[in-house]
Each structure stands twice: as structure tokens, then as C-alpha cells.
What does this fold into?
Amino acid sequence: MNATIELENLQVQCLIGCLNPERVKAQPIRVDLSVVLHAGAAIANDELCQTRDYGQLADEVRFILEEGRFHLLETAASFILHNILLDPGLDKSHSPAQSARVTLTKFNALAGDTKARVTVSGTREQHKNQTEKKPWGSVDIICESKQQGLYRLTIEPGQQLPNHFHRQMRESEMVLSPGLHGWSGDESSQPTPVGSVFQWPNHLHHGYENLGSQPASILCMNAPPFDPTDEIISPRQSP
It folds into this structure.
């Protein structure tokens, strides 16, 4: 049995547009989306982890739009769509989407009451992301444009995403799974609850460790797209 999960009229402040004023001031964007997935197991077991948590889905949409710096509605909508269609991570926190549709509405693009709107749609079969294995886990490349890239980092139990910093890339991260502890600078490692969002300025050391018993994931936005030569691994100073 299939189910369709919908979010309607989710409004997010987003820095989006090609004109100079739009590059310095965020504006409201309306998000409407639908996700089709198999719901038989969720219905039979009455378990949230076997469907899609629409609260977390809304948080992920907010993160992508608030932390991104998009020129086009098409690009922003595509980032959201690719994230929805990404296969569940190793933590298996939700049922995979079979298809999805995302509509973004821009209120201030045209004069009067006229609104600009863009819709993108796709299926799971059409979305084939690349996964890179790391000593501490894996990185899923969700979506990349000329300006930025969206990634899912999954840290295995007992492993650390090493202490590091970036010289050029602007990096923001949202914690998707329980069990992670993180640090910045010379601070001691602290629990990072699900939904926590961090912005890492250039040259600020940071990292994570998975103290849980299951793989744990982070949603990461890099601008420009991730450049391995700009990730500088450094020994962590004792707090």
C-alpha cells in the first residue's frame, strides 16, 4: 500500500535570486511538497521509523533553504527533491520515497499580487547519488550546483569525523541522528541533539564522534561545493 505525505504552505526565509538586492536580504519562500512511499509496514506496525517523519522533513527543507544561497528557484527545488529521494542512510531512519514533487513559490519577484512558482518532480529510480567510503563511514553526494553542494555524512559507531577546518568553504551542518557528540575550537565534546544546526566559519576547528550503537548522519551544505583540498585535518588540542 502506498501513502502520500504532503507539506503545504511551509514558509521559509531564503536568500534567493539573481538581482543584487536579493543577494543581501532573505525573502519568504513558500514550499509545497508531496512524497509517495510504501506504507504497509508503517501501518501494520504503527511505527514512525517505517514511514517519513514530516516534522524532520520540514526541518530538512528549512535547513536547505536557510543555509543555501541560491540564484534560481529551480536549483533550490532540485536540492530539496534530491534530498527527499535519497535512499535511507545506514541508520534506516525512514522508509524510502518512491517519488516526490516540490513546488517553490516566490512572493516578491513580480509587481502586484503576481507570484512566481517552480515545480520539480522525480522518482527514486531517476535519482542515483554517488557514495564515497571514508575510514570513519561514508559521504553521500546528494546534489551539487556551481555555487554549492549538499551531502549526507554518516559516521559509524565508535568512529570520529576528524578534527578539521576549511580555508575557503562556508559550511553548515544539521544533525539527523542520535548518538553524536561534537566540538568546535578547543571546546570539549558535547552531545548534539537531532535537529541541531551549526555554521562553521573559515578556520574554525570542528569535528564529531559517534558514541551511539548505530550509524549516525549529518546533513551538510558546503559553498562552494566540497573541495577535499580545502579540508585541513589537524590534531585536536586537549580541552
In short: The helical segments are 40-45, 54-67, 73-85. The chain has a mean pLDDT of 92.
